[in-house]
Amino acid sequence: MLIAFEGIDGSGKTTQAELLSDRLNREGIPTELVREPGGTRLGEGVRELLLHRSDLRINPVTEFLLFSASRAQLVREKVSPLLQGGKTVILDRYFYSSIAYQGFGRGIPVPDVEMVSRFATGGLLPEVVFLVEIDIETALKRRELAGRQADRMEGAELEFFQKVIRGFAECARREPGRFVLVDGKVPVEKTAEEIFGNVMNRLKNVAEERNAP
Ligand code: TYD
């Protein structure tokens, strides 16, 4: 089973992805967590270029292709082999981030983002996407509290993040069967429990379908 987490920076999606991964492993469901951009040696190199090289000028189209290149490598080097080996894979971000950030945020036509994303991933879709929702003010406050420096993407202005939030909401609206909206403002444990319950139900359904005559 392939699971993705999406949401803006500071939404708490990474925390939730880690909690879910730990919990599933504890329950005896072998699970691997991978992050985007990154997750492979090449991907980590691309991540460094995209997020931490303030000396580089990166055009939005180039930015999108770099995210996509990292994703193409991740799917082929890690995600697909893990799935074939029977593992559950949790993605901390997937191409929906490109639709929201590069499409809605940077203004690259969304059909183009979708087409390239399909090519990069070979059409691999997650069974479920947990979209952790949070308002920009809370997200920024969290970053401040954590004393974190903004990376190149996070340094963008408020208006950009508003567009990104709209982009994620639009993805969820278009695929209601795939997206599960989670509230990033309620206590972490409560959300984690909800997410875990949702995944267990799905795994049960898959098992039942398999055993059906
Ligand atoms: P993330 O790994 O969530 O950041 P952090 O480790 O700091 O929590 O994501 C890094 C940044 O990259 C984030 O600002 C979103 C951006 N991003 C895109 O713009 N497009 C994409 O396709 C992906 C995967 C990430």
List keywords for this structure.
binds thymidine-5'-diphosphate, 5 strands, 5-stranded parallel sheet, globular, 213 residues, Rossmann fold, alpha/beta, 59% helix
Report on this model:
By secondary structure, the protein is an alpha/beta fold. The chain has one domain: Rossmann fold (3-Layer(aba) Sandwich), CATH 3.40.50. It contains eight helices and five strands. It has helices at about 15-25, 40-50, 60-85, 95-105, 110-120, 135-145, 160-175, 190-210, and strands spanning about 1-5, 30-35, 90, 130-135, 180-185. The protein has a five-stranded parallel beta sheet with strand order 2-3-1-4-5, with helices on both faces. Helix 4 packs across helix 7 (about 160-175). The longest helix is centred in the middle third of the chain and has 25 residues, at about 60-85. The model has no long low-confidence stretch (mean pLDDT about 95). Bound molecules: thymidine-5'-diphosphate. Thymidine-5'-diphosphate binds near residues 51 and 98.
What does this entry show, briefly?
The protein has 213 residues and is an alpha/beta fold. The protein has a single domain, classed as P-loop containing nucleotide triphosphate hydrolases (Rossmann fold). It contains eight helices and five strands; from the N terminus they run βαβααβααβααβα.
